[in-house]
């Protein structure tokens, strides 16, 4: 199940969109910001129904 989610880049502050695969359970991955190209860490947690996305700097 794919879900689109807006997030704010932890580096440049610009809003961007991420495509999340909710069928994989809890995940952590790195994706470059489409605006500033810096690597942001995505922490996705889900219980199968409710999910939460946290985006942070790679150096945090």
Account of the 3D structure:
The N and C termini lie far apart (29 Å). With 60 residues, the chain is an all-beta fold. The strands form 2 sheets. The protein has a 3-stranded antiparallel sheet, with no helix packed on it. A two-stranded antiparallel sheet has the order 1-2. Helices cover 0% and strands 58% of the residues.
Query: What class would the helix/strand composition place it in?
Result: mainly beta
In percent, how helical is the residue content?
Answer: under 10%
- Based on CA inertia axes, which overall geometry fits? globular
Estimated share of beta-strand residues: over 45%
Which segments are poorly predicted (pLDDT under 50) over 5 or more consecutive residues?
none
- The helix/strand order is EEEEE
